[in-house]
Amino acid sequence: MTGAFAFLSSAPARACAFLKPMPNQVLPFDQALATVLSHAAALAAPTATETVPLLKVAGRTLAVPVLADRDQPPFDRSTRDGYAVRSTDSGSPLRLIGSIRAGQRWQGQPLGPGETIEIMTGAPLPAGADAVVMVEHTTLEDGLLRVEPTRTLRIGENFVPRGAEACGDQIVLPRGRRIAAAEITVAASCGCAQLEVFEQPKVAIIATGDELVELNEQPAPWQIRNSNSYALKALVTAEGGFGGRLEIARDTRADLFWRISGGSMWDLMLLSGGVSMGKYDLVEQVLTDFGAEFFFPGALIQPGKPIVFGRLPKRGSFQTSETGEFSVPDTGPWRGEWTYFFGLPGNPVSTQVCFHLFVAPLLRALAGRTELAPQFVEAKLAEDVPGGAKVTRFLPAELTSAWDGVTVRVVGWQGSGDVAANARGNCYCVLPIGVESFKAGETVRVLLR
Ligand code: AMP
Ligand code: MG
Fold first, then answer.
1. What is the C-alpha to C-alpha distance for residues 275 and 228, in angstroms, rounded to an integer?
2. What is the pLDDT of residue 13?
3. Against a cut of 0.85, is the pTM above it?
4. β-strand 115-119 against 224-225: which pairing, if any?
């Protein structure tokens, strides 16, 4: 047994071939985020793509831009129910000569002076007309249309000219765009029944801890149910990744070794727990055995201070089982690629805050997306909050967006294990390092989730 496997034998552990010294500097929040963002931005877009039907493509990332297949709108489209008119006809009553509904086109002569044609929303403007007057602003009697005297007919009013939204062959959806309802609408309107998207990044989710039990087991009073794997799977899916929950790793070097070995052929490995200072927090040591390169061993944040970010050589090739949930470990050679990893602190709120701050940007880059950074908004504090912390805090909070402003209220909590408080909130209120106190009405940043 050699290299990274050495410690499994009774012989003393030998340093692994690509062992790098562990940086010991816990970074301030902004530097930790900048570190992740610089790695994320440097990642090349995924090479593998696949074609996915429009009905299944939500959440994926576009690999090939979508072009308009014709002008949009394809004709001068009325935006109102009313009457097609010539703007030069202002003032005098107009003779009604016909009607056009959506899905039809006017087949008579072009609109002449003193004439009008009834038109419905979505119908094409007849030749000769250059405005639509809303039905609400007219009266019709004996085939003569009168427009309210206070209304002048303005050229271009109440219709969208052909090609004003997009011209044929123009890019309407760029590569790297995450696909949601708005993008699906555009694709459908361009006749795309399927889209070429990047393959999903494969994310190994490994919960660690001797106290953890799975949901099909009855926990003893001193045991804890593994909730992090489920949360991480949901978060990974929401960011367009494929999350696979590997078996729980126990707090021994041997067990962590085999789990990390399995995880080290995925694109990203998310470990939860085992990164604090405890006697059985062995995750960093075992990552080191694998030749991990560490970018930071912690960040000055609360919750989540012990977060670890790095990468290790990717091993073998990725395989999924028939259930699509499991990887088959392969001890093949290093392919010159990296498996990025985050060692996330095990407390569930810490795990989730760290996901939103650090994991999501890297995952977006691995998915081929171009917008990477976490999303913050500003809001007014609803109540005073004590400050003075030596870390940047991200406290579970409730954001209320009302007509007269956006406010944020920090929810009461028992600390980073308080999953109920986390679920009572809908965001995290950011309290910068060092500020003595925060007063009601003050503007603060809020991390969206
Ligand atoms: P650790 O980071 O391993 O020191 O764990 C910190 C706290 O988080 C402990 O109270 C653990 O029981 C809890 N914890 C660790 N992993 C999980 C998990 N997968 N699900 C729920 N709680 C966890
Ligand atoms: Mg633990």
1. 15
2. 34
3. yes
4. unpaired
pLDDT for residue 335: 55
| 3-state SS, one letter per residue, for 288-320 | HHCCCEEEECCECEECCCCCEEEEEEEECCCCE
* Contact yes or no for 233/243 (Cβ under 8 A): yes
How far is it, in rounded angstroms, from Cα 61 to Cα 89?
A: 51
The reply to whether ligand 1 has any atom less than 6 angstroms from the CB of 271 is: no
| 346 touches ligand 1 (CB under 6 Å) | yes
Rounded CA Rg of the chain: 30
CB 269 within 8 A of CB 314: no
Distance, in Å, from the CA atom of 188 to the CA atom of 353, rounded to the nearest integer, reads: 36
Q: How far is the CA of 207 from the centre of ligand 2 (A)?
A: 9
Q: What pLDDT score does 315 carry?
A: 80
Going by alpha carbons, the residue nearest to atom 14 of ligand 1 is 346
Tokens of 82: 């009313």
**Residues whose CB is under 5 A from ligand 2 (ion)?**
209, 273-274, 346
For ligand 1, the distance from its centroid to the CA atom of residue 341, given in whole angstroms, is 18
Q: Is 348 in the pocket of ligand 1 (CB under 6 A)?
A: yes
Q: What is the model's pLDDT at position 124?
A: 98
> How confident is the model at residue 265, as a pLDDT?
87
Q: Give kind and range of the element (H or E) at residue 186.
A: helix 181-189
Tokens of 430: 């950011």
The CA distance from 337 to 415, in Å, is 38
> What is the per-residue pLDDT for 15?
38
**What percent helix, strand, coil does the chain show, rounded to 5?**
20, 30, 50
Low-confidence ranges of the chain (pLDDT < 50): 1-19, 318-322, 324-333
